[in-house]
Amino acid sequence: MNAFSGTGIRLHAPAPGWSVEADVVVVGSGVAGLTAALRCEAAGLRTVVVTKARLDDGSTRWAQGGVAAALGDGDTPEQHLDDTLVAGVGLCDERAVRTLVTEGPGAVRRLIATGAHFDETDGELQLTREGGHHRRRIAHAGGDATGAEISRALVDAVRTRGIRTVENALVLDLLTDAEGRTAGVTLHVMGEGQHDGVGAVLAPAVVLATGGMGQVFSATTNPHVSTGDGVALALRAGAEVSDLEFVQFHPTVLFLGKGAEGQQPLVSEAVRGEGAHLVDADGVRFMVGQHELAELAPRDIVAKGITRRMQEHGTDHMYLDARHFGADMWEQRFPTILAACRAHGIDPVTEPIPIAPAAHYASGGVRTDLHGRTTIPGLYACGEVACTGVHGANRLASNSLLEGLVYAERIADDIQERAAGEGLRARVPVPVPQPATPEHPLMPPEARFTIQRVMTQGAGVLRSADSLAEAAAQLGRLHAEAASALAENGKTSEPGVDTWEATNLLCVARVLVAAARRREETRGCHWREDHADRDDINWRRHIVVRLNPDRTLATHTTQTADFPATANPQEQ
Q: What distance in Å separates the CA atoms of residue 202 and residue 432, rounded to the nearest whole number?
């Protein structure tokens, strides 16, 4: 089994002790991963789903607001396109967005046919508004439990169809064959089950749907498992990532006190969509006059507005006032948020909700084309781990679940076409993976908290040349110390989930900071205090990063018109 390794940099890990074969392995069990798996299985492809926790434990189930699509009377894909392009601040790929908005309504209907139950009135979908949308086009479920319902429906479908799953498994590295094509992944299964320890799933197609990297910051809406594993794996394998500097900070996250760390409760944008107001301690609606949509401006604008007001008042939070909703509306429309607030001693029915921005969504990720193909043949990415060109510099509210649906379907169709065109190459024995280049040094588990504090202080909502330089220096020291120890005496931290996650976090943190330092402007989610203006002449471009064999970072820029068409130069 020692032959199982990748051709790029790999994590220090034991050799795989077991393996299974498949036509396609999907890594992740959110809306993107399970949609891809179901469509691949329906096409007759042997499909294995690998997920880091349980099937329903990903980021999808935490989504409150809903799915954006032109499903209402008078709404059109063209209007949805316009709102998305405006939110993306000049960096969306219009072809990718047009694909999203035109194929989106059908994808939502297929999701409903799979078993997802959305809120309706007299047989018609209830639609709401969120920031950046000029129309009510957000379909929701259970009031504010859309993600949980979508996850339930997809998990039920996967189990009903008998798709093979490997739960509680952290993906480690990509396997490639002698020609540099994808040959599967290595993974570590935690706890008891059919498999245990490090193993391999051998397959000529790998779909990364691992979600986000919010845990790179101290406070985030992301679950504990969101440690950037997919982006880090892709970088080690030699794939390109793009737009990683554009991390969306959700404007309204329940403020739990100064220094609160880890996953924080989200207060959905749909609350503002239904008429809640952002106010300061004096009850003043400070977003009025800052944007035509006031509280419903795109998220980057609202987050900046909140942060500015906090600075002016010398405080660490603002308030969301929805007392005028009344108890009935809170209980029927937003039961999950109501329960979360009350669990922390706040009653939105009778008092304003203390809120502050927190890390929420990575608009960038592994660079793909319109079929989800990365720069490595056979490796695909969809959902938050991917950069399709849809989101640009700032994701439009509720476009994330839709992107997962649409691009997962496109990936499954491409894999099916590829398998058919190659005479079902997937069903013949997979070539033996080739020996790997040197290992990546592992971070000690406690490095996770150091990385989070460094990133929050230096690369959070507000950034500057000085703050980013300090963050880069501190991250560089962590990396250099571990690399030096490995080079001098072959020592590294003991392999294990905590060390692998900390190593992945350091990898994505270094790339994020490198891109943020290079982008000398303010655009969308990227706010540079020392470059306060948007600069279309010099920076209407994408920053693309890859990891060199010596573990240094290589960056270049590309025009939006060239993205993502050149993401996959080799023939598939």
A: 10
